[in-house]
Specification:
Number of domains of chain B: 1
Number of helices of chain B: 15
Largest sheet of chain B: none
CATH architecture of chain B: Up-down Bundle
Bound molecules: iron/sulfur cluster
Strand content of chain B: under 5%
Distance between the termini of chain B: 47 Å
CATH class of the largest domain in chain A: Alpha Beta
Helix content of chain B: over 70%
Number of strands of chain B: 0
CATH class of chain B: Mainly Alpha
Strand order of the largest sheet of chain A: 10-2-12-11
CATH topology of chain B: Formate dehydrogenase/DMSO reductase fold
Strand content of chain A: 5-15%
Largest interface: A-B, 72 and 75 residues
Order of helices and strands of chain B: HHHHHHHHHHHHHHH
Number of strands of chain A: 12
Oligomer: heterodimer
Shape of chain B: globular
Structural class of chain A: alpha+beta
Shape of chain A: globular
Radius of gyration of chain A: 25 Å
CATH architecture of the largest domain in chain A: 2-Layer Sandwich
Order of helices and strands of chain A: HHHEEHEEHEEHEEEHHEHEE
Helix content of chain A: 25-40%
Radius of gyration of chain B: 23 Å
């Protein structure tokens, strides 16, 4: 074997065969990939300037008010072309002296899942594939073992079923949130009012946060969210319920777009039994403070020291 | 200027070869193209094309990443004897080991990248212009240690080869220092990767102090086994002459590491199953099945059977010294540990979910194809690097008129002289 083959007479032909061979390998690879059509899913008609603008868009916390305004306008234009409706993207800021907390009365909860419906009507989640922030567990009475819980009890069955109780779980907005620690790009953080939010335009979709969350609160957009036009909620917030895109993480935001304007979260309003108590933990006269001070409350997985701001109690 | 010529000369050598060489490159191109086009599809529709879900949010990609970090780290098992203890046999092949480390770290980075939901935003994952959640997020640590390790493993051999190309002597002290650094760095890449999992107190199966030491043990088992196999192949196709002493050294390392790994496995099994609590649910799912679901059970038991089988072959002197059995043992160890660290470690950590749901995971074909593409890129990079490496070692690049046989003879003569000089050095030390 000679080291170089420069002196071979039929070099040209060999080279040609080689190139053809390699080209064939690439072509066969393309065929074997089984990549189907090149049709793109409905992303709306976004102008090149807007595409460039959103590509280079900075982290929410590093943007100036003007830049945030531009980002919001870009989003509104995109939603307009994608859903053919005017979607208003607000940016409500945390209120001073407010720390939100939630309490849920498990002796009142009947497992109707009205909160789940209220939530998905409010928060522009993907429908079919369904993305839900609240999961109601049907539990056997006499224990607290999550592993025997049934989250898929059919909604056609009559609830509450004998021998069962119901435990709705959503993001607990931990005071010591492991998800925030885990995110490599600070795309998720805890706001001064205690709400843990995500900048959907900064998230890289690595799912570190979902692995770190002990309450399985984080849901990922495995594909372009399917949001039929008639289900779009047009009143949205930048850090909360504005429509998301594929490849990013999302979760409950205590309905920041509502709670920061003094309204109740959608799940609280939807609950027909009055099992849900939401309010300002810093206000000594609030109902939530009353519950914490007068009821026997507990939190899930306290041993993990995440300090959830979501309590359960029973009468 | 000289540096540019060095690179051009290297590239020329990489792109010359006989038909077998080009056939091999074409095979790799086939896999790369298949993976690349599948990845385009994934970019288009999203990660739904994989088997992953909210329940099991990491899968085949991260599994392979975890395995390959071990392969990358294992180069240190050649670096230590070569640069620290000046073992001449290890020195001959250490550059190959470092080349393997380069390819493996590159594949690690690619596996993390293809796992991202938003690859277009990968630049966010940098101190500037992105935002780096360091030191709190373990993924940022992994970015740092992996790119550092890649850099070190490019720099050390590059520096040595460049000197040899020019016919100058490299600075021994500098290389020694860099070797010590890369030794600790190799440990760190695997420790950090272990902490990526162990830092999740929400996932009791991962949140164990044993994860990091076990990762190291499996790395120093699968990695050298992989190197033995790669060396044997290169020896067979006569790309490289590999001394049997190196193979012996590596095979002992594989055997010892496997023993340590199995001891730690036994310790883990005892803790999980003696007083089985809710924390043991993942281990029960993995080894025995849970709620009638048992997709991983055959995987983990075949992994353990392969591991034990490999260990037996390696512990018997006769089979370890027989290259066919040794190759068999290495194949078994590599597959066993590949399963153990991927399907047997990454996946069960997700099952059951923190809310107790048992939801199973199996990679899809699309996912497997993308992974094969990544392996194809790694193999191609390794192949392209090996050619100039050999040429430089044999002095062919600096002096292209030399023919192969003469070059080999010259090379061996140089080696012998170096060895004799060392021996004389010892003699004068003992007997001044
Ligand atoms: S419940 Fe999960 S997602 Fe919500 S703040 Fe806590 S760790 Fe983060
Ligand atoms: S998925 Fe998004 S929010 Fe979660 S850790 Fe990754 S970048 Fe952060």
């Amino acid at each position: 074997m000679k080291f170089t083959n420069n002196n071979l007479p039929d070099l040209g032909r060999r080279k040609a065969i080689r190139l053809v061979g390699m080209g064939a390998a690439v072509g066969m690879g393309a065929l074997a990939s089984g990549s189907s059509s090149l049709a793109t899913p409905n992303m709306g008609n976004v102008s090149l300037a807007d595409q460039v603008g959103s590509f280079f868009q900075d982290h929410y916390k590093r943007m100036s008010p003007e830049e945030i305004q531009e980002a919001i306008e870009r989003l509104e234009r995109k939603y307009k072309s994608k859903y053919q409706v005017e979607v208003k993207v607000g940016d409500p800021k945390p209120l001073p002296d407010v720390l939100f907390g939630y309490a849920l009365n498990i002796s009142k909860c009947q497992g109707y899942r009205e909160c789940v419906k209220g939530c998905t009507a409010e928060n522009n989640q993907s429908k079919d594939p369904n993305l839900e922030y609240i999961r109601v567990l049907e539990m056997d009475r006499g224990q607290m073992n999550l592993e025997t819980a049934d989250p898929y009890y059919p909604s056609t069955e009559e609830v509450p079923k004998p021998g069962k109780f119901y435990l709705p779980i959503q993001c607990h907005h931990c005071e010591n949130p492991p998800c925030v620690k885990a995110c490599p790009v600070k795309a998720t953080w805890k706001e001064p009012d205690g709400i843990v939010v995500i900048d959907y335009n900064w998230c890289i979709g690595c799912r570190m946060c979902a692995n770190a969350c002990p309450y399985w609160a984080r849901k990922f957009n495995w594909t372009e969210p399917n949001l039929p036009v008639d289900t779009v909620n047009t009143q949205t917030g930048y850090l909360s319920n504005r429509p998301r895109e594929k490849g990013v993480m999302e979760k409950c935001t205590f309905c920041a777009q509502r709670s920061r304007e003094g309204r109740m979260p959608a799940c609280q309003e939807a609950c027909p039994t009055g099992a849900r108590v939401f309010g300002n933990l810093l206000d000594p006269d609030s109902e939530i403070r009353y519950v914490l001070e007068n009821k026997n409350v507990f939190r899930l997985k306290e041993e993990l020291n995440t300090e959830p701001k979501f309590w359960y109690y029973s009468d | 200027m000289k540096l540019i010529r060095f690179f051009i000369d290297c590239a020329k050598v990489s792109l010359s070869g006989n038909t077998a060489y080009w056939a091999w490159v074409s095979v790799l191109l086939f896999f790369i193209s298949m993976g690349g086009f599948t990845y385009l599809e994934q970019m288009r529709v999203g990660l739904v094309i994989t088997g992953m879900s909210d329940q099991v949010s990491w899968g085949f990609y991260v599994s392979n990443f975890t395995f390959l970090v071990g392969v990358a780290a294992a180069a240190v098992m050649l670096v230590i004897p070569a640069y620290i203890f000046h073992n001449p046999d290890a020195k001959r092949v250490v550059l190959l080991g470092e080349g393997l480390a380069v390819a493996a770290s590159l594949m690690c980075m690619l596996f993390v990248s293809v796992d991202l939901g938003r690859p277009d935003r990968i630049w966010h994952l940098s101190p500037w212009p992105g935002m780096f959640n360091w030191p709190s997020s373990l993924l940022t640590w992994d970015v740092i240690v992996l790119s550092g390790y890649l850099g070190l493993n490019l720099a050390i051999p590059g520096y040595i080869l460049y000197n040899r190309y020019q016919g100058t002597e490299y600075n021994k002290k500098l290389v020694f220092g860099a070797a010590v650094l890369s030794m600790f760095w190799a440990i760190s890449i695997h420790t950090v990767t272990a902490f990526l999992f162990a830092s999740n107190s929400a996932r009791p199966f991962w949140a164990s102090a044993l994860v990091a030491p076990r990762f190291l043990a499996t790395a120093f088992c699968a990695g050298p086994a992989f190197i033995i196999l790669a060396f044997s192949v290169m020896h067979k196709v006569q790309a490289f002459q590999i001394g049997h002493k190196v193979i012996d050294l590596l095979s002992v390392i594989v055997a010892v590491s496997m023993q340590i790994n199995l001891i730690m496995l036994a310790a883990e099994l005892f803790v999980e199953f003696y007083a089985e609590g809710q924390h043991s649910a993942s281990a029960r799912y993995l080894f025995l099945g849970l709620d009638g679901k048992s997709a991983l059970v055959p995987w983990i038991w075949s992994a353990q059977a392969l591991n034990v089988g490999a260990l037996i072959l390696l512990m018997i002197e006769k089979t370890r010294k027989n290259y066919y059995f040794l190759a068999l043992a290495c194949v078994m160890a590599v597959i066993g540990i590949w399963i153990e660290k991927g399907m047997g470690f990454v996946i069960p950590g997700f099952i059951p979910t923190p809310l107790g749901e048992v939801f199973e995971y199996m990679p899809t074909w699309m996912e497997v194809k993308v992974a094969l593409g990544v392996y194809g890129i790694g193999a191609l990079v390794f192949t392209l690097m090996m050619k100039p490496l050999r040429a430089i070692q044999l002095g062919l690049l600096a002096n292209p008129n030399l023919d192969l046989v003469a070059a080999k003879q010259l090379y061996e003569q140089r080696e012998r002289e170096a060895l004799e000089q060392r021996i004389r050095g010892y003699e004068t030390k003992i007997d001044p």
